[in-house]
Amino acid sequence: MTKSLEALYYFFHPDYIELLPKESLLYRLLTEQRSEVAVWREYTNDCLELALRYELADADLVARLRKDDWESFTSTMNELRCAKLLEDICGINSLRWHPEGRRGKVGEFELTLKGSDAPIFIEVKTVFPRYEDRLEGQIRSKLRSYTEKVPIPSFLSVTIKELGMAEDFSGRKFKNFLERELIKLDLTNTTVVKASRMKLPDYLDDSTGLHLEIAVTPVSPDKLQNCHIGDLGFDELKPVENEDYIRHSLKKAYVQLPKGQRPCLVILCSETEFPIDEDDMLNALLGTLAFRITRSKNGTYVRDAQSIRKPDGFFQTKCNKKLSAVGLYRNRHRDERIKCTLEIYHNPFAVNPIDIKIFEDKGVRQLVKINETEMGWSN
Predict the structure, then answer these.
(1) Span 338-371, pLDDT tens digits
(2) Residue of 42, 93, 195, 236 with fewest CB within 10 Å of its CB?
(3) Is the pLDDT of residue 190 over 50?
(4) Beta bridge mates, 309
């Protein structure tokens, strides 16, 4: 390391680097001499300098950076990257850290501007790709773990119809579901105990989209003390689209937004291996793009298909109105430097909107409300 990377040296001492696995991405970022890696290393140093300048280098930040988990490192760095970009746009000392969010949670930071009525609360979320094989293993383990906590003698056959965002599914909710449904079976009835498999109601987790089909085979209490999964399989799973990931990330961010009159901006970070584009954002926020075909009364004439958006967008008239806007942050290696961009999608139904003039003429694309039925780009 050189003196120009002083902030990087502060967080990652050479003694610590020597302990990292040589094949880890963090080790490669900190040591490789290729020009592209060196550019990313210098950019990382600039973001860590911001952390030191705002006195953010507490034990929690250091632990998240040194965890040697690439997702943890990336999500932590993205908070600093977004902060650096906003400071570059709005000026030095325009940020303030640790505003209290909803339910006492700590938000990422606030953007404070001269002449503004209220600071803008900023929440940063990184959207990661999903690895099917790893996720399936996690779900298998979780289902078996929670099933064995149900003291009802039964074998279960479980088919996963849709994984959804099953990384966050509630084990307690699943356990309560099993107890409630299995207790309805009369295990004192020998006819029931000797019966072949019976179907339980499907398990649907609205918060994650996990969909399970469950069949049960009752057994004598003396043969099995607790519930167990005999068969656990995967059906043809419905693919998760990018807009599903976006909506899921926004739901998690929304509960961390503060009460009151402050405008709130959630910035989503798109990684190179999981790119998010404009169409993904429009589908997630305004509604999935679809086509409507109108027939004449006698049913013989089909008019030209009309492009519409389904009412499944995150921006809605009756909910999620506390969210003022959603940003999309991206960075790319271009011409021996890191190019960072920010797009802002304003919520037309927000109770505390963000003034579009804040980001005008500053290289930020903004999707804004044009009239009661249309949105359009201002830059």
Answers:
(1) 999 999 999 999 999 999 999 998 999 999 999 8
(2) 236
(3) yes
(4) 289
Spatial separation of the C-alpha atoms in residues 20 and 28, rounded to whole Å = 10
**3 state SS for the chain:** CCHHHHHHHHHCCHHHHHHCCCCCHHHHHHHCCCHHHHHHHHHHHHHHHHHHHCCCCCHHHHHHHHCCCHHHHHHHHHHHHHHHHHHHHHCCCCEEECCECHHHCECCEEECCCCCCCCEEEEEEEECCCCHHHHHHHHHHHHHHHHCCCCCCEEEEEEEEECCCHHHCCHHHHHHHHHHHHCCCCCCCHHHHCCCCEECCCEEECCCCEEEEEEEEECCCCCCCCCEEEEEEECCCCCCCHHHHHHHHHHHHHCCCCCCCCCEEEEEEECCCCCCCHHHHHHHHHCCEEEECCECCCCCCECCCEEEECCCCCCCCCCCCCCCEEEEEEEEEECCEEEEEEEEEECCCCCCCCCHHHHCCCCCEEEEECCCCCEEECC
The phi-psi region of residue 104 (left if phi > 0; otherwise alpha if psi is between -120 and 50; otherwise beta) is: left
Q: Which two tokens stand for residue 79?
A: 């908070």
pLDDT at 122: 95
Of 1-5, 233-237, 246-250, 349-353, the one with minimum mean pLDDT is: 1-5
Per-residue pLDDT tens over the stretch 28-82: 999 998 999 999 999 999 999 999 999 999 898 999 999 878 888 999 999 999 9
CA dist 168 and 375 (Å) reads 33
Residue type, 146: Y
**Torsional sign, CA 115, 116, 119, 120:** negative
